[in-house]
Amino acid sequence: MGSGDVLVLLAILIYFILVLTIGFIYAKRSNSSTSEYFLGGRKVGPWFTALSAEASDMSGYLLMGMPGLAYFTGAADVGWTAIGLAVGTYLNWLLVARRLRKYSAANDSITVPGFYSNRFHDRKNTVGTIAAVIILIFFSVYTGSCFVTCGKLFNSLFGWDYSLMMVFGAIIVFLYTMVGGYLSVVATDFVQGCLMFFALAVVVIGSITMAGGVQNTVAFLSDIPGYLSMTATAAPVLGADGLQVVQDGQPLFGGAQTYGVLTVISTLSWGLGYFGMPQVLVRFMGIRDDAEIKTSRRIAIVWVIISMFSAVMIGIIGRYLIPTRLLTQSAAESIFIVLSQMLLPSFLCGLVVSGILAASMSSASSYLLITGSSVAENIFRAVFKKNATDDQVLIVSRITLAVVLLFGVWIAWDQDSVIFTVVSYAWAGLGASFGPLTLFSLYWRRTTKQGAIAGMVTGAAMVLVWHNLIKPLGGVFGIYELLPAFLCGCLAIVVVSLLTKEPDQSVLDEFDHYMDETAAPASDFDTMAKGGLGE
Length: 535
Prior knowledge:
Layout: H1 3-25, H2 27-30, H3 34-39, H4 46-57, H5 60-73, H6 75-106, H7 112-119, H8 126-158, H9 162-210, H10 214-221, E1 232-233, E2 246-247, E3 250-251, E4 257-258, H11 261-268, H12 278-286, H13 293-321, H14 329-332, H15 335-343, H16 346-384, H17 390-411, H18 419-443, H19 449-470, H20 482-499, H21 505-519
Antiparallel strand pairs: 1-4, 2-3
Helix pairs in contact: 1-9, 1-16, 4-9, 4-12, 4-13, 4-16, 5-6, 5-13, 5-16, 5-18, 6-12, 6-13, 6-21, 7-8, 8-9, 8-16, 8-17, 8-18, 8-19, 9-13, 9-15, 9-16, 9-17, 10-13, 15-16, 16-17, 18-19, 18-20, 19-20
């Protein structure tokens, strides 16, 4: 190992030590009760809430998946995805955040499945149990995508064994999540969100400088059919070995593939997923004051827009700087790492690529914690042992963390996994299962428990059916499975709710009271200096 590699490794080790230290700092406070461990006692300020929500959402696909897709096929696919995600982020903060914070606090919900059950006064906890099972299934897949990122990072940087380093990263995430709970996850997310933003800014500015300006990049890439278009996508020519063909030192592309209106709508539908993302919804529930949500919303949307724009630019400029080095989409997901090594001094490179670890670890920790809390609270305590103590619930939660860890490692074992593809599947599953239910729970008083169950099951089932049976047919059926599954989930909620008995008067009265409270305009709490973790 050369001196440069030693400095890179030193920077990464400093990062690991930092996140583990944060976990232990919050261990005593987090373990005082399940409310503290799972939700931080609803004492988190706007800055930490905003950056934690976005850092936990933007997993390895921000620094690896999105740049890799832009590098391989051009601007259209990743560009429309980014636009959909930005719009979805804003609408989620605008439409869901304040209502969910007030309603979940009013019915004393500390998990997302718990909120669904409490919303419908579901004493048998059927709604919460189904929600917890769906979270367990799709978050296990999602967690695996984060571990893929860790393995690819160390393999690209040092040539170390992918599987070994993937497992090492998974264990680090498991340790600080298990020890510190929600507060450690939020605090590390804040640090990681800042690091991700810094990493993207440094690499995109350095890439533009190395390319001699945007004009040179545009002139070169304009010769690739469809590469810079938002209405067409580039088509790399692949050889029998699956690698893009290189001829006379240049990568070969076929004719541009049309990116039609239906495909644009399909890609924009990524934004629908936000309404059902438990890792984001739980941040809304944990903010210390709903009046601070407007501040968080502004911070979050600025962070998201700048970060995704930078990620896309890194992939596009990377194709100009090193056009023939990364010849599969899986390999292309290392473009951020390769550019960091080319552009930066070793120690700074180590800090910047730690941003990739930040992206994957912040997400994985959230997925582990939410899965553990959902299983422990909404299956173990709500169904099997209603008189369980907080200590028993925490033990079950940590056992669940270990099980999901092992399943995530199994999912991530394939080194050729494409992060963007894995994430898109889990994103659709969660978004279609919970997105419609979240919106109807907060906006339609006539929603029934049976309608809620039908919406969740229909959304989850349609993702599986569409992705595996219908989407392969191609043509109009090739749209992203989230869109048809989300619409089917909405339809199921409406139809079944109208066909079943109206909710009890107590449920309607609680909804009306909640609506009266949230009808008042939110305070414009714009003093950002008050952000941070609560006392």
